[in-house]
Amino acid sequence: MTASLTELEIIQNPALGAYALWRFGLGFQSEEGHPAPLPLTFLVLPLMLHRPTLELVLSTRKASGLALFAAKLGEERENLLALHERALALRRLTLQSIAMGVGSRLLTLDYAAVTLRANTADPDSPKPRLPERIRGFTGAADKIGYWFSKLSLPQVASTLVVAF
């Protein structure tokens, strides 16, 4: 007998996390082509798996940048400060997602450089069909990657009030 999954288990799973990290990586690499510093990947799922924060990401234009997003998030200071706690709580899921992404060849982890590269998709492979409730993940992850690529690791940490 198969147990039914809870909404939390459906959304917070390594496969979805791997997909989000892959799209984040593509967004990060979109202009310069450099892979993302590994510590930044631990902020992606905490930003995307919290509905109010995801809605702020989606409502902030890509060109506005991380500073404007953080200002919107910080309108209620506890929302900005909660990001660090969510990052700690989601460490294991992020690691599982990285492992799944590397195992499925969506991602390449460079241990020496401590970076994560999103591999380009095979042009002949079909695009994944996403359920309606997570379609915003693609654009949000790309946007977060783009925003992070414009700042240094310490600048991202300072802007989002997190410690690595």
Provide a short characterization of the protein structure.
The chain has 164 residues and is mainly alpha-helical. Helix content is 59%, strand content 6%.
Give a description of the structure:
By secondary structure, this protein is mostly helical. Helices cover 59% and strands 6% of the residues. A three-stranded antiparallel sheet has the order 1-3-2. Strand 2 (107-110) and strand 3 form a beta hairpin. Helix 2 crosses helix 3, helix 2 packs across helix 7 and helix 3 (38-48) crosses helix 7. It starts with 6 loop residues before the first helix and ends with a helix. The mean pLDDT is 90.
Q: C-alpha Rg, in Å?
A: 15 Å
Please report the number of helical segments.
9
Q: Which whole number gives the mean pLDDT?
A: 90
Largest sheet: 3 strands, antiparallel
Give the CA-based shape.
globular
List segments where confidence is low: pLDDT < 50 over at least 5 consecutive residues. Answer: none
Structural class: mainly alpha
* Helix-residue proportion: 55-70%
In angstroms, what separates the terminal alpha carbons? Answer: 43 Å
Order of helices and strands: HHEHHHHHEEHH
